[in-house]
Design goal:
49% helix, seven-stranded parallel sheet, globular, 2 domains, 258 residues, alpha/beta
């Protein structure tokens, strides 16, 4: 029977890269995320093209606990237990602490941290029953170190790493692992916007804008790729990674080594 893998925030960027990698490994994918209908359709088509099973899609708003409960209960009833859970959905907003909008704080904590708690708590009973589970939380280098003007994001990602460790300890004897991947600058549509803004601010080329962004933090001077993050996620789902749990794995070109 094909195992189910749920990847949140998987209609583009890092989440889609991870979904593609897991589909290639033989999992049936459940995608989640917002976007224009044509974007979602394209993501489903891309994943379906490399999968032996047609992917599913849930458009659940992960800031709403009750919506998460309803969506997952329907999945469990129709498809069975989730074997691999990847918590990737997230958002960003930048402002100093004393100017940070309270509604943005609440939204970021809800999506970047609380949503992972809810998906984990709901998927764990099924993982325990089947004596197998892989939980991968996509944190960030900002789960390990801070940057200015990102208080909610940094707080949420630090919290996600704490949740990862607690979950790993509670499931250590159950053939269930829980790990966090901590990417540095990753070339996604979101980062491309930052590159273009940097280039515009400095009146330089887009290519030089990317170099300027990397030079600030990432010693390798190269972007992480979504394929690399997908491959690492796929490895963490294998037997070879069964004794890796509670880890926070930087994929950051040396950012957090400084």
């Amino acid at each position: 029977m094909t195992q189910l893998a749920l990847v949140t925030g998987s209609t583009s960027g890092i989440g889609l890269g991870i979904a593609m990698s897991l589909a290639e490994a033989g999992y049936q994918l459940i995608l989640n995320g917002f976007g224009e209908p044509e974007v979602i359709d394209q993501a489903l088509a891309d994943v379906g093209a490399v999968s032996s099973e047609s992917p599913l899609y849930i458009g659940t708003d992960l800031t709403q606990p009750r919506a998460i409960e309803l969506a997952l209960s329907e999945i469990f009833e129709s498809e069975g237990s989730v074997s691999v859970l990847v918590n990737n959905a997230g958002m960003q907003f930048t402002a100093p602490v004393d100017e940070f909008p309270v509604d943005k704080w609440d939204q970021i904590i809800a999506l970047n941290l609380s949503a992972a708690f809810h998906t984990i708590r709901l998927c764990l009973p099924g993982m325990k029953a089947q004596n197998f589970g892989r939980i991968i939380n996509i944190a960030s280098v900002h789960g390990l170190v801070a940057s200015v003007n990102k208080p909610a994001y940094v707080a949420a990602k630090h919290g996600l790493i704490g949740l990862t460790k607690a979950t790993a300890l509670e499931t250590a004897e159950m053939n269930i692992t829980c790990n966090a991947i901590c990417p540095g600058w990753t070339h996604t549509p979101l980062i491309q916007t930052q590159i273009e803004n940097r280039a515009s601010d400095l009146n330089i080329s887009i290519e030089d804008g990317g170099r300027a962004l990397l030079a600030e933090k990432q010693p390798s001077k190269e972007f992480v790729t979504t394929d690399q993050l997908g491959a690492l996620t796929r490895f963490l789902c294998t037997d070879a990674a069964s004794q890796i749990t509670g880890a926070s794995l930087p994929v950051d070109g040396g950012w957090t080594a400084q």
